[in-house]
Amino acid sequence: MKKNQYVVFGLGRFGVALTKALNEYGAEVLVVDKDEELVNEISPYCTHAVCMDATDERNLERLGINNMDVAIVCIASNIEASIFISLLCKQMGIPKVISKASDEKHKLVLERIGVDSVVIPEEAMGERLAAVLAKPNVVEIMTLADSFRMVEIRTPKRWQDKTLIELDLRNTEHVNIVVIKRGDEIITSPAGDCKLLADDLIVIAGAIDDIKRLSNKATGKVVAEKIDIL
Asked: What Å distances lie between residue 89 and 33, 65, 70, 92, 164, CA to CA?
């Protein structure tokens, strides 16, 4: 089955974290940013990284952006660029365009030009808090495409005090652990000898059916189908 191809515009904190997580999952990711230093830093974590002005339609055409399945525009601080790049992605036929907005007016404009999913960071944090309160074992769900999902769960009891090598989740559950949150510590790309603790928050990524099955095991009930959080 063909893997989805993603293009990420903007290498702020979210753009970098998203790119690395998609890379851990094995997705094909094209990253675009105007900052050459940031592009060089992210290069090992993506399929292709390009330093260029993404508001130039000719640049996007040369990159073959129209062949991508999902575009994520992470340039909320530059409203004009955010709107223009999002519009170009829609006009070039990318099936799903996700954009961050700086405020409600920005969000309204993005929605009116046809962006599929728009999130304001403050609203996303509110949704995340609601998820923490309502579902203590599954605290965040991110859907980036019809076949890809990321979920943050608390360590299931049967995983506690076991290393990632012992669990072998890629083969047993068909998912990847991309981040572990341990108190104030963030462990990205955890090594095989990393042992999971009872209070860890674990970000896992995988195909929707595998993630849903695993999430249901963790909670004992059906998980919400979709909460887009950027």
From this structure: 15, 8, 9, 5, 38
